[in-house]
Structures are given as structure tokens and as C-alpha cells.
Amino acid sequence: RQLITSHDEL
Amino acid sequence: MNIFRLTGDLSHLAAIIILLLKIWKTRSCAGISGKSQILFALVFTTRYLDLLTSFISLYNTSMKFIYIGCAYATVYMIYAKFKATYDGNHDTFRVEFLVVPIGGLAFLVNHDFSPLEILWTFSIYLESVAILPQLFMISKTGEAETITTHYLFFLGLYRALYLMNWIWRFYFEGFFDMIAIVAGVVQTILYCDFFYLYVTKVLKGKKLSLPA
Predict the structure, then answer these.
(1) Residues near B137 by Cβ (< 8 Å), separated by ≥ 6?
(2) pLDDT tens-digit series, residues B92-119
(3) Given pLDDT bands bounded at 50, 70 and 90, which one contains residue B74?
(4) Option in A2, A4, A7 nearest B50 (CB)
(5) Given a cut of 90, is residue B211 above it in pLDDT?
(6) I need a surface site. Which of B71, B111, B138, B172 has the fewest CB within 10 A?
(7) Which chain B residues have a beta carbon less than 8 Å from that of A4?
(8) Is the ipTM of this complex over 0.85?
(9) B144-150: long-range contacts at Cβ-Cβ below 8 A with a sequence spacing of 24 or more?
């Protein structure tokens, strides 16, 4: 499970 | 994108529009906490600075502009246009006790020590408690207009739907963002008391009045 810091949510 | 996130965004948009229309149509911001609305404007401003640096989708960009535009329009109507109807005597929550510790926390606990990321983290933490002045004001006045309770319902529902979105994304995409999830859980828990009153009173046609 990778943590994603590219915030694609509002 | 999944159904929970889409309905969450639409619920959030509905809340923002309901509040804007309530103030605009009734030409009154009685019962509305201006402090919470300032905090929401701050949340959107610090979170959506990436509008200047990255493009994710037309949906993402347009929603961010709508959120920011409505937030500032609401603050403008409360503190300028319909200032006379602003109930400052009951909107007395000390927001500096929220903003300062959260600012510090954003520096200590974040995914990446870069300006944009720290501001994003600050906005996530701040959003989780931004409704407190509004809930505090309702507890002080002991009641809320029905339209205001609908605003709060959709606003609380949006982050609850986002929690389901994060479960969905963890299971199907392996995506998880612990900061957003923890803050989202705190945010949703703060609405539980209101949700109970909303379901047991407002949905039965009664007025929302707290035992003052």
C-alpha cells in the first residue's frame, strides 16, 4: 500500500 | 473518482450553495457563525494554492474555484453586505485557540516539509475543527433555523462520505492518506451530536432547539 502525497481530492 | 467521493463533493457543494442562498434570499445571516465561514475560506485558500502549480482535471479545478468563490462571497455577505444581521454577541468562539495550535501541528506532523504541503496539512487539520464556532454559537443561542440545520447536515455528510471514499480507495487503489483520514474522522465525530438532533428533531418537522 503506497502513500500518495499528490493530492487529487478536493 | 468513485461514487462516495462524487456524492461527497456534491454534498459539500450543496451545503455551500444552501448557505449562500439562505443568506442571499433572506438577506440575513442570523444564526450563522462568521468565524466558521472565515475558517472555511482559510481552509480553501491554503488547500487550493496548487491551482497555481498543477492541473488535475477540469472537474477538480472548477470545483476549487467554486468553493473558494462561494466561501469568500459568504464571508463578504456576513461581514459587509448583511453586517447588520450578524449576531456577533453569540459568535464568540476563540478561533485563535484553534488556528495557532493547528499551525504548529502542521509543521510537526506532515507528509513533506515543503510550503505547499505544510499549508495543505494545515488546511486539513483546520477543516476538521472549522465548524466548532458554528456549533458553539448554536449551543449558545439554543436553537438553529431549519435551513441552517440542512446546511450543517450536508456539510457533515460530505466528510462522512469521504471516509467511505478512503476505504474504497484503500481497498481498490491501495491509496491512503493517514493525515486526511484521521482529520476526517475527527471532523465527522464532531457532527455526531448534531446528526442525532437533526434526525430525531428536524426530520420530524420539529425545530432544532437545544436544552439551553
Answers:
(1) B31, B33, B87, B90, B91, B92, B93
(2) 999 999 999 999 999 999 999 999 999 9
(3) very high
(4) A7
(5) no
(6) B172
(7) 175, 177
(8) yes
(9) B144/B31, B144/B208, B145/B22, B145/B30, B145/B31, B146/B202, B146/B207, B146/B208, B147/B18, B147/B22, B148/B19, B148/B22, B148/B31, B148/B32, B149/B194, B149/B197, B149/B198, B149/B202, B149/B208, B150/B18, B150/B202
Q: How far is A7 from chain B (nearest CA, A)?
A: 9
CA of A9, closest CA in chain B: separation in Å?
8
Q: Summarize pLDDT for B36-62 with one digit per residue, the tens.
A: 999 999 999 999 999 999 999 999 999
The Cα–Cα gap between B90 and B76 comes to 19
Chain A residues with CB-CB distance to B under 8 A?
A: 1-10
Q: Which residue has the cell 475543527?
A: B129
